[in-house]
Amino acid sequence: MCFRFLFSLTYMNHTKGGLVIFTANSHPSSRELGKRIAERLGVELGKVQVYQEANRETRVQIQESVRGKDVFVIQTVSKDVNTTIMEMLIMVYACRTSCARSITGVLPYFPYSKQCKMRKRGSIVSKLIASMMCKAGLTHLITMDLHQKEIQGFFNIPVDNLRASPFLLQYIQEEIPDYRNAVIVAKSPASAKRAQSFAERLRLGIAVIHGEAQDAESDQVDGRHSPPTVKTTGAIHPSMEIPLLIPKEKPPITVVGDVGGRIAIIVDDIIDDVDSFVAAAETLKERGAYKIFVMATHGILSSEAPRFIEESAIDEVVVTNTIPHELQKLQCPKIKTVDISMILSEAIRRIHNGESMSYLFRNIGVDD
């Protein structure tokens, strides 16, 4: 069984005229990813100047004609996420005012995707970012493994949510010699569906860790469950009381599934704060797993994450290049990278040529 995308290079180079690819300068890796995509498509990167003025304002100058052309703006999220967003918005608006026929944003990692639910008196920031991008002039969005697939509904333009799982599955098959003796692990019940998808495709068993410390995405922090601070009976009959929801209580940590003498492969969509992954690895070691891998699409790896990984029981962390992490790799040799520029370039080619995108979503179910 092979999950390799069989795209012919000669086929990839045949694109219709009027294609322009721009990259912003939020991070050198953004330009590196853009170069890989442009090379696969047989085109040159468009000429654009993006820089910060002395007062930290972002200025964009398109240095070639885009009138009547299909423009693709590639942007990877750097450590300064807000500057990243502004670069994207201003560049899209600049292309719009320069009369581009269509403007497609290529954001392998969608920023603020974790803030896609209402929490107490907060806001749904993902919806705000989506509205800003549409208002700036974006006509199409290509992204990868959204934290919640429902984020697509925040846009009033087409959104192609590509998957990195074929590349991660291929890495498991080719780089883990004894992967047949592995078990796919969900570090929480919330990621069980993703683990099940990996396990079914690799014909492996599955294990779920339950009872870990409550995370920021639990229902307890949802403002809709917040009880009133003071009992008010002005509008309610004194004999009537609103029943309150019983608070949750986490059970002791339990591993559902056998990991003894096996390779444990923890899968998730994002690895940022690694505390939960480190704790999961320690639990799996205690249960007899002799090697532990972590597979994720987006390697944000903030703060002291590289040091914590290096000092943990985790043997290897595999992420894609949707987010720049060269510095983290220098700090921790356990971090490995899988290139996903191939599927992004094929998506761009198909959109530009007006071809169906269904090939890129073959064998992908609703729960994937």
UniProtKB/TrEMBL annotation:
A Pfam entry, by short name: Pribosyltran_N
One of the record's GO molecular function terms = magnesium ion binding
Domain of life, per the record?
A: Eukaryota
Q: What is a single cellular component term in the Gene Ontology annotation? A: ribose phosphate diphosphokinase complex
**Might you name a Gene Ontology BP term for this protein?**
5-phosphoribose 1-diphosphate biosynthetic process
Question: What InterPro entries does the record point to?
Answer: Pribosyltran_N, PRTase-like, PRTase_dom, Rib-P_diPkinase
Q: Which Gene3D superfamilies match?
A: 3.40.50.2020
Q: Where is the Ribose-phosphate pyrophosphokinase N-terminal domain?
A: 20-137
- For this UniProt record, give its keywords in alphabetical order, as a comma-separated list: Acetylation, Nucleotide biosynthesis, Phosphoprotein
Q: Which residues form the signal peptide?
A: none
Alphabetized SMART domains for the sequence: Pribosyltran_N
Q: Assembly and interactions? A: Binds to PRPS1 and PRPS2.
**Briefly, what is this protein's role?**
Seems to play a negative regulatory role in 5-phosphoribose 1-diphosphate synthesis.
Family of this protein: Belongs to the ribose-phosphate pyrophosphokinase family.
- Which NCBIfam families does the entry link to? ribP_PPkin (TIGR01251)
What is the protein's name according to its record?
Answer: Phosphoribosyl pyrophosphate synthase-associated protein 2
Organism lineage reads as: Eukaryota, Metazoa, Chordata, Craniata, Vertebrata
